[in-house]
Amino acid sequence: MIDPRRLALYVHWPFCLAKCPYCDFNSHVRDRIEVEAWESALLADLEQEAQREQPPIIGSVFFGGGTPSLMPPALVASLLAAAERRFGFADDVEITLEANPSSVEAGNFAALASAGINRVSLGVQALDDGALQMLGRLHSMDEALIALDIAQREFRRLSFDLIYGRPGQTPTQWERELTQALSFGTEHLSLYQLTIEPGTRFATDVRRGALVPLDGDSAADLFALTQEMTCAAGLPAYEISNHARPGRESRHNLAYWRYQDYAGIGPGAHGRRLGRATMRHRKPENYLAAIAEHGHGIQEERALPLHEQATEALLMGLRLAEGVDLAALGERFGLMPDKLIDARKLALHAASGLIREEGARLIVTPQGMPLLDALLPDLVAVEAEPV
């Protein structure tokens, strides 16, 4: 399942028109953006990655943000041309761009498709105007529906996001909204429970008592309803929050979850490649300054010890419905499988029905998935010892 000849490339565009109150991503609002300066910087950062040893072919590209649908299509085309020239693209390369469904951005869809984008991930977030307003979104439900229609015409592949588990949301409300979402017939849905992240405006609102999150039991009920409805519609969860028709999963995100090599360029982008971790400068101005001084935007680069790579691979892989093959993982990193997992905790969680073993494969059960954030650090060994 791991193809060492393929590289996943992530390009971060850090700019948004406004900061959503739930968002803790590296996004920034700026009055003016010097597109030529950003094109030069991103091309230089890409070149730095191309000069590393053993350049593989690119299997997927993902433009994330921020709001990359605000990027000029000519800039997208320039970056893709450079990536193909320096690395080469697989025949079935997946090229995804995150987009917001405003009328301005939807107007760019045809040009973005011509630039090389063949898959779009649309940030719809809610099919209800009141919920969109609460979430700080700048588009209306009508705009979202128009954007969905345009995207289905312009791109070969389409996914869209919804946020559920919103304050006061009932199972009846979510069932109605998800039924409508499933009726569009898209191949992929990303369905995220609202999480109150530190440092966001929502976190401040919760402390002030201005926002009351949904309680845990109600959120669990909505999660179970989501799994039931998406499975019945032929879009089972292949990852805790991502649902797709079989064979139509996001190949780029699977590269992360299967711990395949990936390179990240742009402000705040992370990479895992050739056993090394890279992190770019987060603040746009600092990133540009680093490019000018060093020719790349890397703030930190370090070698990853094998036990850390194995732990990261476990933490990512157990998010998937397919789970992880402990024997293959141990062989990949030269570590004993019984040193990767806390055997006592495994037995405890298996007895509780939260995790199961299928031969050498370890799989979090549907009952365990809602508890994943607590389950994983409890299950995975803190350090794995070399063979």
Characterize this entry briefly.
The protein is α/β, with parallel strands linked by helices and 387 residues long. The protein has 15 helices and 15 strands. The chain starts with 5 loop residues before the first strand and ends in an 8-residue tail after the last helix.
Q: How is the quaternary structure best described?
A: single chain
Low-confidence stretches: none
Helix/strand order, N-terminal first: EHEHEHHEHHEHEHHEEHEEEHEHEHHEEH
Cα Rg: 21 Å
- How is the biggest beta sheet arranged? 9 strands, mixed
**Secondary structure tally: strands:** 15
Record the strand order, biggest sheet. Answer: 7-8-6-5-4-3-2-1-9
SS-based class: alpha/beta
Terminal Cα separation, in Å? 23 Å
Shape: globular
Q: Can you give the mean pLDDT?
A: 93
The proportion of residues in beta strands is 15-25%
In DSSP terms (H or I, runs of 4 or more residues), the helix count works out at 15
Helix content: 25-40%
